[in-house]
Design brief:
Elements: E1 7-8, E2 19-22, H1 27-34, H2 38-53, E3 73-86, E4 90-101, E5 115-126, E6 132-134, E7 139-142
Parallel strand pairs: 1-3, 2-3
Antiparallel strand pairs: 3-4, 4-5, 5-6, 5-7
Amino acid sequence: MQLINAKRIETPAYGRQFTIEVDPDGGQESQDAFATHLDSVLVEVDRRLEVEFNDPDRFFLDEQAGFPLRANITGEYYVSVMTYVEDDETYDLSILLHCLGCDSLPSDGENEDFDYVGMEMGVYIDKVSGELSYESAFQTSAI
């Protein structure tokens, strides 16, 4: 079984344009806290996404097992939304990804929705220690 590599791409012409959402109650502080960590966060998201793509318990090998199917994912994805909020003990960042699928490309050449699955990752900075942490797994959804 060939490994699927995660590759972040620019937002396609048909895709949801990249949006930054900042909660009015502390979101700006969260965005400021993540400013120096954003590059390393995106590298870690790439790494974690690649692990997910290649995990048969998360991306299934056959249709009977469920959605999403490993065979339908290309490995390419783009970031559509980054949401910054502040919690009592952490600064929070939610990153919504749109992952492209190889069987969802239209055969007639029309620019239709090529996105196959949405994935969301939560990232947190502890306000006291400054330590970064990540959700244990992506949340997946049909898009």
